Amino acid sequence: MDHVNNKPRYHSFQRKRLAIRFVSSLLLTGYVVFIVLQLEHLQIWHWISIIIVSVVILLAGRGYCGFLCPVGSCLDFIHYICKKLHVKEIKRPEGFNRFIRGFRYFFCVFYFVLHFGIGIDPGWALVVLLIITTPVMVRFWCSICPIGTILGMLSRISVFQLQKNLEACVSCSACEKACPMQNDKVFKADKTGEIHSVSCIYCGLCVGKCPKEHTLSLKVAGREILSSGR
Q: Helix, strand or coil for residue 143?
């Protein structure tokens, strides 16, 4: 039996995260639609709300991707359905992942120049990319998402923190194998044990798979919300 099945706190955390994602996806989608419809008639309170939402997202960092993003929630739901239908998942080769980790910065600049500089909306091309990749690759879009890339670069100021106890780690690589973003930095933490990664979305899957108690912990604003082995 998979040892993760015997971790009530982990499953409680994931149920709460699922509820947060569902509610936040509905609220954020409705909010964005409302703001877009009001673009020509924005009042001061609209701008204040935009600033507040933007600050919350910036402070969340890529925790936004794991807890709040409507697109990420939809991608996970689609992948879940495909998994139930026994659609074979493709693991991205490490060489391809290394390429993606560099390419995402170019794509981020290209996307914003195309959208805001030239005025071309690449939306439909991105929809096609999502449809093709989502059934077989977990969170591939999130690996190159321009907003996710920017938030990832701000990971050091994020309220979300992933901490690793290097002395307790047995180097089993269970954390790396569990990561939907195929992020190797959770396995290769620096000497401080702090894991700062552009890719990490703080979903907690690595913490749930870690077999050693108190080796990996997920914190929000310094408060531990999940620890491995529990």
A: helix
